[in-house]
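Appendix B. One record, verbatim.
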Amino acid sequence: MRDYGVQSRPHGARVRGVRVEPIQVFSDARGSLHKLLPGPVDGEVYLVRAAPGARRGDHRHAAMGEWFTALSGAGVLRVADPESGESADYDLRGARVYVPAGLAHVVIAGPEEDFVVLAFAERLHDPDDVFPGGCP
């Protein structure tokens, strides 16, 4: 994994339940189409922008999972399991990452540019299902 100026985790480290899938890209002379999520969205879709060096999120949900993919910039999605203490950084470029309910997550931008991420929630936002903290 490339160093984005954030504290790195062991290469290839994974947290239980997290899924990483490639983004399908269809290209021709006119440009490309990126299939970010191959299915219906039952919840909400968010555009998250983290300023250079900033962290956005750092919370978990008890009843909702989310998918994440990068749109532009550099950074990582850090995921942590509050029960086991495991944590890992995920490169979102060219991939979508699923974070299941119960795992903490935070978007961390690299030091030089905004990191723009698209998040797909499985459910509508419920403020009672947001528990702050959990990511180192």
